Amino acid sequence: MDWLNAIVQGTLLGGLYALFAAGLSLIFGVMRLVNIAHGDLIVLAAYLGLTTTVALGVHPLLALIVVVPAMAAIGYALQRGILNQTLGDDLLPPLLVTFGISVILQNALLEVYTADPQKMNAGALETASFDLGGLTLGWLPVLTMLVAIAVIAGLQWVFYRTPLGRAFRATSDNQDIAQLMGLNKAHVFGLAMALALAVTAIAGLFLGIRTSFDPSIGGGRLIFGFEAVIIGGLGNLWGTLAGGVILGVAQTIGAKIDPGWQLLAGHIVFLLILAVRPNGLFPRVAA
Amino acid sequence: MNLNDYSVTRTTREARIAALIGVVVMAALIAAPWWAGRADMRLLSELFLYLALASLWNLMAGYAGLVSVGQQAFVGLGGYMLFALTMFAGLHPIVAIGLSGVIAAAVSIPVAALLFRLRGAYFAIGTWVMAEVFRLVFAQISALGGGSGSSLPVDIVKSLAASRSGREALSYWLALAAAAGVVAAVYLFLRSRKGLALTAIRDNELAAGSLGIDILRAKFLVYVVTAAMTAMVGGLIFLQKLRISPDAAFSVNDWTAFVIFIVVIGGIGTIEGPIIGTLIFFALRETLADLGTTYLLVLGAVAIVVMLKAPKGVWGFIRNRFDLQLFPLGFRVRFPEKRKGD
After folding, report:
1. What residues 66-95 of chain A have any CB closer than 8 A to a CB of chain B?
2. Checking CA distances to B51, which of A151, A280, B83, B259 falls within 20 to 30 Å?
3. Cβ distance of B61 and A85 shorter than 8 Å
C-alpha cells in the first residue's frame, strides 16, 4: 500500500512537472528556442502571485487573474524586445542571451524579495484531502493534475483547432513561407511566448502554493521541465504530461527508498530513458 | 605579376611583438612571490584559474560548438578527487591533481556517449542535469562529508611545502602554470591537424563534414580533453580553497555563469577573447563587488548586450578594426610591395 501510495502521489506530482514543461515544449515547438530562463520565469510568476495575494488580500488561485495576463505581457515584450533578435541558424545567441536573462532575473528577485524562502497561503486547500480506496489524496495535488490536463488539452486545441495554432504550426514548418503568406513571424513568436508564459504563470502559482520557494530554485525547475519534455518525446504535449508523471513517480519512489535519493532517482530515470530511447518514449516525429 | 612575389606567412609583426611582451609579462608573473603581496597573489591565482576555465569552455563552445552549462560537473569532480585521493590514498596533492585529470577523462567518456544524443540547446541543459547528478552523488558520500563537505587535513596541506609563504608561492605557480598551460595547449591544438578540422567545424559544420571531417569524433575528443583539463583546474581551485562542499564544488554560477560571461564579453571563438574577458571580468568585479547582487545584474546585462550587438565580443571588435591576431593561427598571403597601392 505504501508503494501504491508513492506511485499515486508521484503521478500527481507529475502534474506540476508537466505544467513546468508545457511552456518549454511550446516555444521549442514553434521557434526551436530553448529558454534557459524558463525556471526563473516560473519563480518570477510565483513571486508575482505572492505580491498579488499580499497586496490584494485574495486567495492565490484568484491571483491567477492578475498573474496570467502579466506574465503573458512580459512574454510578448521579452520575445519582441530581445529574443527575436537572437533567432537564426546559430545556437549560441539564444542560449547565451536566455542564460543572461536567467542570471538577471535571479538577482533581481534576490534584490527585491531577499533570499528568505516564501510561501503562498492557500488556506484550507493546502491540507484538505479525501479518501479513495484506502489512499488519502490531497485536493491540491489532484487539482494541480486536473489543471495540467486542462492546460495541455487547451494547448492541443489552440494548436490544431484555431487560426492562432495554424499560424504557430505554419511558422514552425517554414518561417519564410509563413511570412510570404502574410504572417508576421515576429508577432507570431511574440504570441507563442506570451502563451508559454501564461502557462508558466499557472505553474508558478501552483509551485508557490505547494512548496516554499526562493530566487535560487529556478534552475532546478527548468531541469524538471526539461526532463519531462525529453522523457515524453519532443513535440508531443501529451507525451510531456506522461514524462512529468514518470519523473514524479521516479522521485517519490526514490524518496521512499532513501530521502536523499529523491532528486537523484528522477535524474537517473531520465538518463536511463535517454540511453535506451534517445527520442523519448512518445516522439511525435520519427528522427 | 609573378607568383613568386607572393608569400604565405603565419606570423605577423604584431604577433611577434605580442609574443615578446608575453614573455616579459610571464617572467614578471613568475617572479610575483618576490614582489607581490599576499592578497594580490591570491587574486592573481584566482584570475589564472578563471582564465584556464574560460579558455577550455571557449574551446568547447567557440570551436567545437558544444555549448555546455554543466562544466561545473568536472570542476567539482576534480576538486573532490583531490580530496579523496589525498585523504584516502595518501597521494601527494600534485600527483592527485594529475590523476584526477585521468579519472575525469575516463568518466567523461560514458557521459559524452549519453549527452551527445541530445542535440544543440538540449545538449546544454543535459550537461546541467549531469552536473546535478554529480552534485547529488557526492552529497551522498559520507566519507567526504556528505552534504556539508569537508576540509583538507592540515598534514596534507603541509606536505606541499613546510612554510606558509612556500605553500602560497607554490599554489600561485601552479595556478599560473595551469593558465599558461591551458592557453598554450589550446593554441598548439588549434594549430595542429585536428585543430584545423575543429576550426572548419566552427566556421561551417556542413561544409566541414562534406570535406571528410569526422565531426562527431572531433567533438567527442574535445569534450573528453576539456573534461580532463577542467577537472585538473578544479583540483587547483579547491587546493586554494582548502575546503569543499557539494554546493560550492558544483556551483553553476561560479564555474559556468561567470565563465560564460568572460568568454562572451571577451570574444568567443578566439584564443585572445578569454584573456581579455578575464581581465575585464576581474576589473568589473574589483570595482563593483561592493554592489552585491547589482554587480551580477550589470554583468548579465553586459553579456546580453554584447551577444546582441557585438557577438564576437571585445576581441572580435579589435580584430576587425585593426586586423590583429596575437596568436597566429591562420595563414595570410603577403602581396608583393608594389601591388599594395593599387
Report:
1. 82, 85-86, 91-95
2. B83
3. no
Q: Mutate which of B136, B204, B206, B251 to disrupt the A interface (most A C-beta within 10 Å)?
A: B136
Chain A partners within 8 Å of B65 (Cβ) = 91
In this structure, is residue A109 part of a structural domain? yes
pLDDT score recorded for residue B136: 92
Supply angle C-alpha A205, A206, A210, rounded to 5.
120
Residue B221 CB neighbours (<10 A): 17
Domain annotation covers residue A283: no
Distance from CA of B217 to the nearest CA of A (A): 19
Indicate yes or no: CB of B65 within 8 angstroms of CB of A91: yes
Chain B contact for A153, CB < 8 A?
no
CB of A127 less than 8 A from some CB of B: no
Residue found under cell 610575483:
B32
Of residues A100, A107, A260, nearest to B293 (C-beta): A107
A147 in reach of chain B (CB within 8 A) = no
Residue A286 pLDDT: 42
Contacts of B311 in chain A (CB under 8 A): 92-93
All residues of chain A having their beta carbon less than 8 Å from the beta carbon of residue B118 are: 230, 274, 278
Highest-scoring range by mean pLDDT, A249-253, A260-264, B300-304, B330-334:
A249-253
pLDDT in tens, A156-188: 999 999 999 999 999 988 888 988 988 899 999
For chain B, how long is the longest CA-to-CA vector? 76
Is B324 within 8 Å of B315 (Cβ atoms)?
no
Give me the domain span that covers residue A175: 2-121+133-276
CA dihedral B176, B181, B186, B191 (to 10 degrees): 130
Q: What is the mean pLDDT of residues B195-215?
A: 86
The DSSP secondary-structure symbol of A37 reads: T
Q: Is the pLDDT of residue B342 over 60?
A: no
Residue A147, in any domain of the structure: yes
In this structure, what are the phi and psi dihedrals at residue A264, rounded to the nearest 5 degrees?
-60, -40
Whether the CB of B288 is below 8 Å from some CB of chain A: the reply is: no
Q: Which residues of A57-90 are buried (b: 16+ CB within 10 A; e: fewer)?
A: eeebbebbebbbebbbebbbebbbebbbbbbeee
Q: What is the pTM of this model?
A: 0.89
Q: What is the CATH number of the domain that holds A10?
A: 1.10.3470
Q: Which residue of A has its CA nearest to B136?
A: A264
Alpha helices (runs of H) in A139-257, residue ranges in sequence order: 139-161, 163-173, 175-180, 185-210, 218-232, 237-257
B64-103 confidence digits (pLDDT tens) = 889 899 999 999 999 999 999 999 998 999 999 999 999 9
Pick from A58-62, B281-285, B334-338: least confident: B334-338
Looking at residue B336, the DSSP 8-state letter turns out to be: P
Task: Give domain status of residue A97, yes or no.
Answer: yes
- The total number of structural domains in chain A stands at 1
| Res B338 pLDDT > 70 | no
